Amino acid sequence: MPLLVKEVQSVMSGQVYGDRLICYLDILGLKKRIKASETDERQAARIKATLEMLSQSVEEAQRLLKELQPAGSQEKAPDVTYQMFSDTVVLCADRVDGTSLLYLLYAIGLIQARLTTRRTFLRGAVTVGKHYHEQERRLNVMFGPAYTEAYDVAENLAGWPRVLVHPDVLQGPIGRSRRRYIEQNLCVTENDGLPFVDYLGGIYGLGLAISWRREYLRGPSRARAKYLPLELQTDYYLLKHKRAIEHEARLKGARDDIAILVKYHSAAAYHNGFIDSVCDFIGGAPQFDSLEIAARNFGAVELTLRTLPRGSEQEAVKFLNRKLRGMTGRIETIRANKIDLAGTFPARYGSNPPKPALRHGTL
To answer: What is the CATH number of domain 19-198?
Structure first.
């Protein structure tokens, strides 16, 4: 439909806003890097590469999720658009339903995972509500209450590098099964009671699901980790994530900077908590009689094994148990990726640790 016709129709009908899922993302530290790039072309090139990589993550997430769909599935990926300006990224899902939210959260997780491998962290929020987003031809406009709320939530409540998920999003029309899957595999709530995107767990589970599916269908020789994006190579990514947090915490002056200490100590605690949850699960040497994995972040694995195009369920269960035994044998390697909190944040654990003024709030 021509743009002018759409504009006239929207004015005549009085309908400008649509119900949308919105994610506001703030790339931490990018303003300083942009300022430094004024006299440093290499810094400018690194910023450009980071933003180009970020813009590819939405399409990459959609492609990866499509790989996990059952053979012959006709489910259409939702339309997730994005806009970037300076250190801000806004994602918009065109529908408010469980599938759109699933794709949006995986896209956010992949963006977070990819940026952290470049020692770049995000803070943001996901909301639901009225929003206008137009990217056709001469218009490139967005505004609405949902975006304003996402910005306010991120700036006032996120506190450390995480993407909060407003409770209204999880209580919306997303369906019971999707809600259960998202709460178990893509969101986590910590001490302050605010749910946020569990990008470590979500991407870790997605990486296992895709690599194990490929191995089951093609054999180990054709499903090597090197064929996966680096962020989905689970052991590699945990190590990169650990090093990124340690690097940020040990920047010049960071050890004595209370704002940096609070920000990255929380990120380190989240990192360690995820590794503990994985080790607690596989440390019990789990073995299953059916494809029902009652473990956090393993939902993508269960989903993909249930929808394999060939073989019986018992064959898939045997394959799953073999892979879990392999993980149990590597538990110390996985645990070695934990961060030494006392060594990385000595000011936090010294004899007179500072008392940071943490921001608390409710959504």
So the answer is: 3.30.70.1230
